Here is the input.
Amino acid sequence: MDLENNNNTVVPEFKKEDVDKKRSAPGDDNDGVENIKKVKLCGKALKVEDAHVPESNKKTLAQSPKKRIELRNIKPTINKNEAFIYGNYRHYYGKRILDTDFHDVRLDVLGMQPELFRGKQLLDVGCNSGHFSLEIAKKFEVKSLVGLDIDRALISEAQLAVNLLKRSSNISAATAAGKFPYNVKFVHGNFVLADDVLLEIVRPQFDVILCLSVTKWIHLNFCDAGLKQAFRRMYLLLHPGGKLILEPQAFDTYKRRKKLTESIRKNYEAIQFKPDQFASYLLSQEVGFARMQLMGVPAHCQAGFKRPILIFSKV
Here is the structure.
């Protein structure tokens, strides 16, 4: 027997119980219940909430042009300590200069033996922005000078200075070879090699190597092994009769920089090869220098920069 509903739709009798169950029985499907939209009356207005809209279906609110500009202009936070872990300070020579003519007082010490540089091939390890390298090349009439630094930005600054000097010089390209500033170039790189085995392919290239106020930074970043390797590489890069001019920092200056990074702190605590041992190591059979002499100590500068400048000779 068929029944009629209020809409005059014929409903088969065998489905009547199912229809009644759907109208009266509570839902067993929790997910279905949770996804039912709830209607709330707020005053005279209706507010529809969907408490379980999938994240993928939610629309991201568009940001205003002003907000987008503000976000675009936010600069990433830079740890200043980590930016200068190699002693690669900008305006470093401002602390070393005695007068407004950009005269580094160490030039007075080097100038006591100008014959060491005149007509020679030089390498300046840790040249920073190249001011001192350029002064040496110009003042002592070197044959050539290569400045090396681990900081690419400083090398770019140094090479820019060379290019400006070239444009302002009256030297023709035909006669420029071997003349200042055409005999100076700057190279980006780490003097400490990735592996000691690479020392086997190092060949003599220079008459003089300058390593001025750099040993502390090699030491803090590459520890005892890295500094010892650097000393051996310096020896191997020198021609017979060549000179290493070394200005090491005292160990008590290391402590002020040990907190630059966690890695530097660990290296500092592991150091056993102290600056007062450098000379004996350089003169040992492991390296090979034949003799050492004191070149001088810069005068008229801050106490922290009055460091002895030493000459190590290769035979």
Notes: The longest helix spans residues 215-237. The chain has a mean pLDDT of 80. The CA atoms of residues 22 and 307 lie 95 Å apart. The chain has eleven helices and eleven strands.
